[in-house]
Amino acid sequence: MSRTSRGLVFAGLVLFLLYSVAPVWWLLVNATKNSRDLLLTNGLWFADLNLGGNLRQISEYQDGIFLRWTANSLLYAVGGAAVGTLVALAAGYGLARFSYPGRSLSMGLVIASFLIPYSMLTLPLYLLFSRIGLTDTAWAVLIPTFINPFSVYLAKVYVEGAIPPELLEAARIDGAGEVQIFFRIVLRMLTTAGATIFLLGFVASWNGFFLPMTMLRSPENWTMTLGLYNWLRQSQVSNAGTIDFTSIVITGSLLSVIPLAAVMIALQRFWRTGVALGALK
């Protein structure tokens, strides 16, 4: 590679880094400011440190409902992603390693399903859950996250590359049942796939907005995203009084990033293991 090419690649990487880091830096800086400093100081540098006051306001406002929203978001994201990962791995394993009539049709339906925009399914889901009385409950947000066609497709691809059919046949010859094979052999060989699918499901559920907004009415059932959105609306239609809505919304947005970063760091070792195994093969 010539020096000019290396320079262009380096410049492109620097620009991409700035594009990725700048919003997080802006959020970090402005979460430490009050509303006056937000308007009168440089948005990319610190002013008087007011992070403690913002955290105190966000934890005390409406009897600490932000903590309830945090717990709800963790329930929806962790519970939905965990069950969705298990379902996806089981379905992907079945599609990849079992022969049955209609297998090609099943795979075609899976691919067609994740090509449908999710917004088109929101109204049918709402009508269905309304009919069975599950709207404004945690199940109305959890159940749709249990099934993700793209995760099923991703799991199928992982199984085809990581689970040799000869291994499964050897386990069957030794007398292992299908359920035993799945939980004791297949799942242990799909840790990288499981970590990837779990992360995708966690991020999608944690950042989800349209589904909770449609299904949930009671503020105590809201997610962090939906709750912060409603606080932002309040800041636009009220004089705020003693509550600095803009500052606490920015602070809440910063807090909402922390679980995402923690999950990504915690699952990083699984990706590193998968890359190393791929290099050895």
Description:
- This protein is an all-alpha fold.
- The chain has one domain (55-280): MetI-like fold.
- Helices cover 77% and strands 0% of the residues.
- The chain is built from 15 helices and no strands.
- Helix 4 (65-97) runs parallel beside helix 7 (139-146), helix 4 packs across helix 8 and helix 13 (224-237) packs antiparallel against helix 14.
- The model is unreliable at 275-281 (pLDDT under 50).
Which descriptors apply to this entry?
281 residues; mainly alpha; MetI-like fold; 15 helices; globular; disordered C terminus
Principal-axes geometry comes out as: globular
CATH top-level class: Mainly Alpha
Q: Any idea how many domains?
A: 1
Give the name of the CATH architecture.
Orthogonal Bundle
Taken as a percent bin, the fraction of beta residues is under 5%
What is the CATH topology assignment?
A: MetI-like fold
Largest sheet: none
* Amino- and carboxy-terminal Cα gap: 28 Å
Low-confidence stretches: 275-281
Mean pLDDT: 89
So, the CATH homologous superfamily? MetI-like
User: Could you give the order of the helices and strands?
Assistant: HHHHHHHHHHHHHHH
Rg over CA atoms:
23 Å
Q: Share of helix among residues?
A: over 70%
Q: How many alpha or pi helices?
A: 15
Q: Pairing-aware structural class of the strands and helices?
A: mainly alpha
Strands, total number: 0
